[in-house]
Design goal:
Blueprint: H1 2-8, H2 17-20, H3 25-38, H4 42-48, H5 62-87, H6 95-103, H7 106-111, E1 115-126, H8 133-139, E2 140-141, E3 146-155, E4 161-164, E5 168-169, H9 174-180, H10 183-191, E6 197-198, E7 201-204, E8 207-215, E9 224-225, E10 229-232, H11 241-250, H12 259-267, E11 280-282, E12 293-295, E13 298-300, H13 304-319, H14 335-352
Helix pairs in contact: 3-5, 4-5, 5-14
């Protein structure tokens, strides 16, 4: 942790001296890391500090003295995000990095030769029920039956996060969120700028690799850049993803949709499993970028489930930072900052944990 604290120091805007009290940067950084890892409230962390480190203004109630700690913590979290952006901890990989990550999973090379994949999945982050009825409806996740924020990540085969989404309300379906964020356009913009990229294939060294996105059944028919392959688990072959998206929008419990439920959905004009295997569309032209052709070129393969599980483990690693699951610290203004910070720290652990442990 000491190495990380030194690296982040120059990116932290220190609070005004009148609010510093007895908290030095080292104490504030350690309390911030405990807050991120344990999800404890600032008041609890304040009372856990040794008496010599607490605010000396005993005339103030403990809640106000804990606010001094909160000012430090918010600035340190922003400093971590700024430092992570400068270091490129969460970013699209170069061809050499992507190949290196893929080759570390030796069985994948046997089952899917000459393919470089990213794996995608989403997860809810629970929060308190909003008092406003309209907001509560947007935040309600019918799949998990809770109010939540919704995020998704893209990871390399070893679990390195290459893209962390913005946060949406829990009502939004994973596939809808992908399309709203134009992730396919971001992928195209980055990799098409490489001289060795052509129509979904990337030459690294002397080998040409097929680029791919792997996901579970919720990502069936996902629009990816033209030429890219979509690797979906076998369960997605008969999955009615339109019905699932409708379930998120309307609150129906799609998990209970059997043959009768699916027939009723068709009668209502919602969903249906008679989908074409492929479709194309173009993103609107703008900002100097050419039109991006998108298509569905998918393959249902039971073997991909073994390798797709890496993104599930990454989600578990993200949620070990209890700030994302304790409900205490997440709100509409802070949730994006915390998810960016935790994504960066998770990647830092993957790359440097043997040198600078952040695990308690």
């Amino acid at each position: 942790m000491e190495t990380l604290a030194r690296s982040v120091y120059e990116h932290v805007k220190h609070p005004h001296m009148t609010w510093n009290s007895k908290y030095d940067y080292g104490t504030a950084f350690q309390s911030t890391m405990y807050m991120l890892r344990k999800g404890d409230s600032n008041r609890f962390l304040f009372h856990m500090l040794p008496p010599s480190m607490r605010s000396d203004n005993e005339a103030l109630p403990s809640s106000d003295r804990a606010n001094t700690l909160r000012r430090w913590q918010r600035r340190i979290v922003k400093g971590i995000v700024e430092w992570a952006d400068q270091q490129g901890l969460v970013r699209w990989l170069t061809g050499a990095e992507w190949r290196s990550d893929t080759e570390k999973v030796e069985d994948f090379k046997v089952d899917f030769p000459n393919i470089l994949p990213f794996f995608v999945d989403g997860t809810p982050l629970p929060t308190f029920a909003p008092g406003d009825a309209r907001t509560a409806k947007i935040m309600w996740n019918s799949k998990h039956a809770e109010h939540a924020f919704q995020i998704f990540v893209l990871v390399s085969p070893i679990g390195r996060i290459v893209y962390s989404s913005h946060v949406e309300g829990g009502k939004m379906h994973d596939k809808t969120q992908w399309e709203k964020e134009n992730v396919s356009k971001s992928l195209y913009d980055h990799y098409s700028s490489l001289s060795r990229y052509r129509e979904g294939k990337l030459k690294v060294g002397n080998q040409v690799y097929q680029l791919a996105i792997g996901g579970d059944k919720a990502y069936r028919d996902l629009l990816v850049p033209a030429g890219w392959q979509l690797l979906i688990t076998k369960s997605g072959e008969d999955h009615n993803v339109d019905a699932e998206q409708s379930a998120h929008d309307s609150g129906w419990d799609y998990k209970c949709l059997g043959a009768t439920g699916e027939r009723k959905m068709k009668e209502m004009g919602v969903g249906g499993s008679d989908k074409k295997p492929a479709k194309k569309k173009s993103l609107p032209q703008g900002d100097g970028f050419p039109v991006v052709d998108l298509e569905v070129c998918q393959k249902f393969d039971p073997k991909i489930a073994t390798y797709r599980c890496v993104v599930e483990r990454v989600m578990k690693a993200l949620k070990r930072w209890k700030v994302l699951t304790s409900c205490i610290h997440l709100n509409a203004t802070s949730v994006n900052l915390f998810t960016r910070c935790v994504s960066a720290l998770t990647n830092y652990q993957l790359l440097h944990d043997h040198q600078d442990s952040l695990t308690w």
